[in-house]
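Example 4.3 (complexes with small molecules)
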Amino acid sequence: MANEQIDFSKHEILLSSSEIKLRVEELGRQISADYRDRELHLVGVLNGAFIFLADLVRQIDIPCQICFLQASSYKDQKLSSGEVTLMHNLDLSGKEVLVVEDIFDTGLTLKYIFEDLQQQKPKSLEACALLSKQIPDKEAVEVKYIGFEIEDRFVVGYGLDFAEKYREIPHIACLD
Ligand code: 5GP
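Answer. The structure with guanosine-5'-monophosphate bound is encoded below.
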């Protein structure tokens, strides 16, 4: 069915929209304090981080610039393909860069992004992920700001999709 939606009686709501809102406010305060008097450049990772980034920037009370790159590793399925494709036209040389990601799962995507952006010689390069999955073998990537640690479940909503569906749901639900 084209408009099939999650049946919430069957799928657990992991994080409500009010829980997310409170945590995003905290992250915004923390990032504002850390980057005060610095020129913050936020790089949102499309597609999944678009809602998180939009909410986060409105909780940051210092001037910042916003740009995007596109990353894809999942091809309409719940398991990573193990390959990450990046698309962008960014010039971040000498900039204070904070990559904003929806979820830090294996860390493969962030590892690729860091390797790619490091070549541009930014002044600083950090990451902020709304979610981090507790799994044993994560890539050795340091994510300075993490919204929530979650168990290893497949989640959707608040920008996160399954086969391009469910991004618009205002909370985060488990699909498994
Ligand atoms: P990683 O490279 O860290 O394994 O995965 C990062 C990307 O995989 C995320 O940006 C996200 O797009 C996708 N991903 C990982 N886990 C989930 C999940 O539970 N739900 C959804 N919708 N996407 C996920």
